[in-house]
C-alpha cells in the first residue's frame, strides 16, 4: 500500500496524470471551444497543473468585473443624454469635437492591439528581441494616446463642473485614461523583466495578461468614442 502511494506521488509530480479537484468538470466542454477562447480557461483542474491557464481565467474574471463598471457608466451616460437632450450643452459650449487629433489618437490606440499581439506571440516562441521592439512600440502608442487626451482636455471649452456634459465626459475619458496608463505601466514592467536572464523561461503569464488587458482597453474605447464623439447633441 505504501509503495502504491509512493508511485502515485511520483507520477503526479512528473505531470503524467492529473486528478481533477474542481467540482465542475470544465475540460469536457472546454475542448469544444475555439482555440483562441481556450486560452482564457483553465485546463485539467487541480492545484499544480496549468498555472498559466488558471491565471488567465482569473484575470479574465477580473476584466469582466471592470467591464461591469464601464457598462454602468455607459448606461448612466445614455440615460442622461436621452433625458436631458434639450439642455445637454450649456449656452456657448460646443462639446467634444471630432477633431483630427482625436481621430489620429484613436487610430493609434486601436492599431496598438495589432502590435502587442505579435509581441506576445514572439515571446512565446522565445524571440526576445522582436518582443522587446514590438512591446516598446506599443508603449509609445499608448503614451501618444495619453498625451493627446491631456492636450484635448486643455483645449476644451468646458470643464468638469460644466453641467452634465462636463462631468460625464471627464469621468468616462478619465477612467479610461487611467486604464490606459495602467496598461502602459504594466507593459514597461514586462519589458524590464525581459532583460532579466531566464525570466520568461518558466512562463509568460504577465505578458499574456497585459496583452489581454490592452485589448480590453481598446474595445472599451470603441464604445466611448462612439458615445462621446459620434453621438451629436
* Class derived from helix and strand content: mainly alpha
- What's the tally of helices? 9
* Secondary-structure element string: HHHHHHHHH
Biggest sheet record: none
Q: If you average the pLDDT, what whole number results?
A: 82
The Rg value, from CA coordinates, equals 23 Å
Percent strand: under 5%
Shape: elongated
Gap between N and C termini = 77 Å
What proportion of the residues is helical, as a percent range? Answer: 55-70%
Number of strands: 0
Low-confidence stretches: 1-8, 10-23, 45-49
Report the oligomer: single chain
State the gist of this model.
The protein is mainly alpha-helical. It is built from nine helices and no strands. Helix 5 (100-111) packs antiparallel against helix 7 (128-155).
Structural overview:
It is built from nine helices and no strands. It has helices at 2-14, 27-30, 35-38, 51-83, 100-111, 113-124, 128-155, 163-193, 205-230. The longest helix is centred in the N-terminal third of the chain and has 33 residues, at 51-83. The protein has 233 residues and is an all-alpha fold. The termini are far apart. InterPro entries: Cyt_c/ubiquinol_Oxase_su3, Cyt_c_oxidase-like_su3, Cyt_c_oxidase_su3-like_sf, Cyt_c_oxidase_su3_a-hlx. The chain crosses the membrane at residues 57-80, 100-119, 131-151, 171-192, 212-231. Belongs to the cytochrome c oxidase subunit 3 family.
Features:
single chain; 233 residues; mainly alpha; 9 helices; disordered N terminus; cytochrome-c oxidase activity
